[in-house]
Amino acid sequence: MTHMHVAGSIHADATTPAPVWLTRPDDVNVLTPKLWSQTTHRAADGVVAVGGVRLTDLAEQVGTPAYVLDEDDFRTRARAWRDAFTGWTVYYAGKSFLCTAVAAWVAEEGLSLDVCSLGELTVALRAGFDPARIGMHGNNKSEAELRLALERGVGRIIVDSADEITRLERLCAELDTTARVMVRVTTGVEAHTHEYIATAHEDQKFGFSISSGQALVALFRCHNSSRLELLGVHSHIGSQIFDTNGFEVAARRTLKLFAQFKEATGLQLAELDLGGGFGIAYTKEDDPATPEDLASGLREIVEHECRGFGLDLPKVSIEPGRAIVGPSGLALYRVGTVKAVDVGAGLSRRYVSVDGGMSDNIRPALYAAEYSATLASRASTAEPVVSRVVGLHCEGGDILVRDEFLPADTRVGDLLAVPASGAYSRSMASNYNHTPRPPVVSVRDGQVRTLVRRETLDDLLALDAGIAENEV
Ligand SMILES: *Cc1c(COP(=O)(O)O)cnc(C)c1O
């Protein structure tokens, strides 16, 4: 992993020790509310507490590193999305983080659930999640996962290719059943953090392109199939999106497709899914919209476009993952080394190494994602110093928090908390360097509950077939 040139970024940073958005805090102990779950606060003695649990106690109880999920915050956020989008269906995107307990919370809060692999579907079913409220994604679904989805009566399968339609029809015939399907389309809208691009071509692996006509062909094919019940169209434009501009273009292009389908068949498609990708605050720089603002914006967009095309309002759904679980989770690490590194021009950078890294959060290395951190085990009166929080892995790019003000007296044994770590951290974790993956614990009303236990070296060795008698 060397796509970020470490020496290059050091030189660039040497003249500007911190990015422009990272302003020196007046008080390094203050927790910026938008970054933290709603029950997070710093107690009078300086220790950060979440869900009524002091992180020093939690570290003692479950060790570090650990992912900590604020159950009340998760539930509150899930309800906020559900309520803001009343009349629409909100699917929680399980790929952001899923375990049986979280699937149960999602069900209890009245949301539906998206899965995109046999593993995710199995977790959801194990949790007793109503299959009728599950959506099944994936651009290369296996026979095994399609079969399980059909046998258990999954509510909708989002078909992604002509090959998949063939496979699905064959399996439906074999099982003498039918499948409810949405057709995944690419609208040519690609959304990123603070921008979106609307292009004419769609050079990526997902779905059927609208501009080439393939989407309409796929709709006709599903519509004409005796084994498939065509529900509508699905579009997902990207992730960590902060405004509705990209959704507006996507809605216009998908609803134009509705109009074309209606013109050809005389029938209006019943459902439209606008996907997920709603952004959250990882750093002070990020300003996410509330579910209420997004809901009113998206409703207006869909109503406007339907009027324009002379369509009835379809049944609409969305699929937030990160925006629900991201802010509810933090990652807790213990500091192992603190090092000042000379970066030239009389400047130095402070490297704070913790007991986790790219194995428990790949996003900084994978997408150059930015994070924040705070000293969690005590308050400090020391000067804020720009620091880089790095992991223990054998990669120069093993960075967790590229730039953050931490107190100058940050030292070995301190706990650091990284907020907004609930999404795509544990779910993308690896065993790089034979590192056991951290546990996920939830906190609520002063209680700690293990949702996913810590992996052990024995867990890892259990997969190793050994040296003797290893003939196949
Ligand atoms: C990843 C994904 C989502 C969720 O994205 P978030 O950024 O977590 O909201 C929703 N729908 C589809 C199809 C996805 O691939």
Any overview of this molecule?
Helix content is 30%, strand content 25%. With 472 residues, it is an alpha/beta fold. The chain has 2 domains: 10-69 and 328-456, Beta Barrel (Lyase, Ornithine Decarboxylase, Chain A, domain 1); 72-325, TIM Barrel (Alpha-Beta Barrel). The strands form 4 sheets. Strands 4, 16, 17, 18, 19, 20, 21, 22 and 23 form a 9-stranded mixed β-sheet that branches. Helix 3 packs parallel to helix 10 (291-309), helix 6 crosses helix 7 and helix 9 packs parallel to helix 10 (291-309). The longest helix is centred in the middle third of the chain and has 21 residues, at 245-265. Residues 1-16 have low confidence and may be disordered. The site of pyridoxal-5'-phosphate has 17 residues, from helix 11.
What is the secondary structure topology, with strand pairs?
Blueprint: H1 6-15, E1 41-42, E2 48-50, E3 53-54, H2 55-62, E4 66-70, H3 71-84, E5 89-93, H4 100-108, E6 112-115, H5 118-126, E7 134-136, H6 143-152, E8 156-159, H7 162-175, E9 179-186, E10 189-192, E11 195-198, E12 208-209, H8 214-224, E13 228-234, H9 245-265, E14 271-273, H10 291-309, E15 315-318, H11 322-325, E16 329-344, E17 347-354, H12 363-367, E18 374-375, E19 384-390, E20 399-407, E21 415-418, E22 440-444, E23 447-452, H13 457-462
Parallel strand pairs: 4-22, 5-6, 5-15, 6-7, 7-8, 8-9, 9-12, 9-13, 13-14, 14-15, 17-19
Antiparallel strand pairs: 1-2, 2-3, 4-16, 10-11, 16-17, 16-21, 18-21, 19-20, 22-23
